[in-house]
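Protein record

Derive C-alpha cells from sequence
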Amino acid sequence: MIATEMKTYFPQIKSITQAQLRLQSVIRKTPLELHEGYSERFGANISLKREDLQQVRSYKIRGAYNKISSLTAAESENGIVCASAGNHAQGVALSCFKLKIKGTIFMPTTTPKQKVRKVKSFGKLMVDVILQGDSFDDAKAACDRFAIENKATIVPPFEDEKVIEGQATVGLEILEQHQGQIDYLFMPIGGGGLTSGVSAVFRELSPNTKIIGLEPIGAPAMYESLKMGEVVTLTKIDTFADGVAVKRVGQLNFDICKKTLSDIRLVHEGKICETMLELYDEDAIVVEPAGALSLAALDDFAEEIKGKNVVCVVSGGNNDITRTAEIRERALLYKGLKHYFIVNFPQRAGALKEFVNDVLGENDDIVFFEYNKKNSREMGPALVGIELKFAYDFDALQKRMTEHNFLGEYLNEKPSLFGYIF
C-alpha cells in the first residue's frame, strides 16, 4: 500500500470569492485612501486600507461571520465559544446576534474595558462574556475546556480555513479598489489570520507585490517561528499591542505565511505609540496599537519604497481612551524625550533650587517628582522624571547632573527598576 501525501491547506480564490458574497450584506467595503501626508514624507503613494471603519472597528467581523454562517445546524446546536483579546470577540458577538446563535466569549482580564463593553453591546442577549487569565493563550485554554464540557463549537480567531478565507476578502477589496500595480503591502500579524488570507490572495492575483508582515517587538511569535522554521511558543509577551499579542501563531497561518511573505519585521512599541498619536493629531484617525503597525514600519523601508505604490492595512480602531497617558508616555520614552532618574539631593535648604537653576536646561521640564526627607541622612534620593524638548539635550543634562553630584541612577535603561514606575 502506497501512503498518500497529505496536502497542506492554501486558500483558494474561489472560496474567498464565496466568502465575499456571504459577507456583502454584513460588512462595510472599507475605503482605500491615499494618505497625502505619508505619501509626501516618503516620496511614495501610500494608501490606507481603513478596516478601522468596519462596524466593529476591525476586520475581524469578516472571518467570524464567514465561519459561523458556515456551521451546520448540528455544529451550532449547543452554541459557539471563542477566545479573544478583543477584536475577534466583537466580530463573533455581532455575528451571533445577526445569526441568532448563542455564544460564549472568553477574554483576557487585561483586555481594555472599552473592548469588553463593545463585545457585550454587539452581542446583546446572545452572548456571555467571561474574563479569564492574563493573555490570549490563557483565555484560549479556558475556551477549550468550556467547549469540551458544553459540546460547543469553537470559532478560532485565526487558525481555521473559513476564518482565513473571511479575512482574505480584505485582499480582494484592495485589488478591486487600487488602480495599477501595488509594489508593497504592509500588514500586522497576530495569530496570522489576516496576513495568511490576504497574502494568499496577492500571491495568486498580484504576485509581484512584496508583502511585509509586522509584529511588535514584545510579541514576535511569527517572527521567531519563521526564524526557527516551525511554530514556536513564546514564554512571555508584552500585551500592550493586545490585538496582535499572542504567544503562538496558528499552524495553518504559519504554513501559508512562510510561502507568501517577502519579509517580516519587528516594530518597537514606542514607535507604534508615536504613530498612533500622529494619526490622531494630524488626521483625527483613532487606531489601536495593532492598527498602527503597518504605518509605524514605514521608516525602516524609507529608501526602498520611494516612488512606489504602497498599501498599509489599518487593521483596527478599538483603542481605549483611558490608555492615552500610557501611549504618550511610551512615545516620549521611545523618542528620547522623557527620562527618569534617582537624584541624590543634599538634605539642606536650597538643594532643589540649585538643581533647577544649575542642572535643568532652558527647555527641560520636571514632570514627575517623588521625595521623602529623612533627617538622619546626608543625601536624600528622589525619583525625578524630566521631559526634554529635544532628544539631543539629554547628554548635556546628564553631564550637569554628574558635575553637580546629583546623579544617582538613570532608570530608563534599568528594566527591573523602571517597571515600578512605568
Observations:
- The two ends are 63 Å apart (CA to CA).
